[in-house]
Amino acid sequence: MEARADWPWPAPVADRGAWHLSVAFPMPDFDLPATTGGTRSVGATRGLAVLFVYPWTGAPGIADPPRWDDIPGAHGSTPEAEGFRDLHPWFAERGITVLGMSGQSPAHQAELARRLDLPYAILSDADEVVADAADLPRFVTGVDRYLKRLTLVLWHGRVVTRFYPVHPPDRHAGEVRDWLRREMGL
User: Fold this and answer.
1) What pLDDT is recorded for position 100?
2) Would you state the pLDDT for residue 2?
3) pLDDT at position 4
4) Quick one: pLDDT at residue 3?
5) 45 has pLDDT over 80
6) Cα torsion 25, 92, 44, 156: sign
7) Contacts of 122 (CB under 8 A, 6+ apart)
8) CATH number, domain at 149?
9) Residue 24 lies in a domain
């Protein structure tokens, strides 16, 4: 994992937390609240999709969780979401669905989607139903549990490839786009 002088927070550790999310792994079919209205199911998403999972995004006036600056891979969710926003036209032109997901509440995610003008749905797994069913990697700080940052490329709800750990998050959307160009000819 490459360290960057302009990324002051610790990089995530390469562990085997997402090892089981291998090719053809079926994502769970649970309806989750979506910032675009209604609900969406990752497992029922048709066609090609990119699901980026992130731990937490801050909001104006809200302090970071305890020890956030010291947790490898914790920082960077807002720049990651902005990267997928900025490259969304490229994904959309190719019919690729972009979805974000965290364990934050629908209200918190709605604020983020409005503030960042996100053109794609952010899904709330606040009850951890997808996280539990897919055994997504997590970490604890304070009294709360957070999803570790990872990205899955899916075809009809099944894993095509995974990116884990993700670093640096601000350049990750471009990394996913480049993989899709190289490996899938898009």
Assistant:
1) 98
2) 53
3) 57
4) 53
5) yes
6) negative
7) 34, 35, 81, 99, 100, 101, 102, 109, 112, 113
8) 3.40.30.10
9) no
